[in-house]
Amino acid sequence: MRDMYLFNSFYLDGWTIWGLASQFLFFLSLVIQWYESEKARRSILPASFWWLRLAGSMMLIVYAFHRRDAVFLLAASLQIFIYLRNIALFKRNGP
Predict the structure, then answer these.
(1) pTM for this predicted structure
(2) Domain edges within the chain
């Protein structure tokens, strides 16, 4: 893939697309949470919310490691523990 610039100032390469895809998973988790809450007419967090968050964090770790960004690496690493714990609680107790 040929590297290119987006809007003449943002560098767009395969890793940037990877980072954008991981951020999209975070966005998608919020859309699903909103949809499920509207459908139930109460605020809920479905299991898919946590799984998408976990996948997004794992992708961000790969991205942060490649970019050598300690801030993203630390934040995404810590988030994984929270998401795994919530998935475990969800499996044990249900929605």
Answers:
(1) 0.78
(2) 4-93
